[in-house]
Request: fold
Amino acid sequence: MVQRPSHSAGSHRIRAFIAVDLDEEVKHALRPVLKRVRERCGRSDVKWLPEENWHLTVKFLGDVPWLEVGRVGKLMQAVAAEAAPFELRVEGLGAFPPGRAPRIVSAGIVAGGAELAKLHAALDASLATMGIPPENRGFKAHLTLGRVRGHAEMLWEALREYEAAPFGACEVDKLVLYQSELESRGAQYTALASGKLGR
Reply:
């Protein structure tokens, strides 16, 4: 079922993306580690994402006409139906790009990355039929946890201890279409549709 986007009556387009959710095991493992990293970062200027916004983006859609959201959801569901469920394993914290000015703090994907890349390619091809352009940059699966907004002098040291830390695994069995709305308290995500992997 495809939900009606919020605030659609007063706007013509919504910001949207397709993602994979995390299960509680991975979130439970990440919580204490991120707490320690935040404490050790000191003056590093990082905007940490709230836990409810942790997800793996498979396809960023940008601004989509809200009248087309139902079609986007159906195409996503068709792509999902052609893919088998798979295991996703999360391991290690890092920041990229490497160097003095990283932009993103993330957790790595050590299993399931190839399957996510195939889903990304299939979504690119399917959604191009309705005018949503493929992404130019190569797809690399990662779990965004924070965005670096300024100096990060203590960030690398705080992350180094957890470069290979294991955060568990979860089964990926669905894709979710989200609406993203920017509010004063940060981005708020609303699930509009989901598609089960496999028939």
Remarks:
- The chain has one domain: 13-196.
- The CA atoms of residues 20 and 56 lie 5 Å apart.
- Helices lie at 24-41, 69-81, 113-128, 155-160.
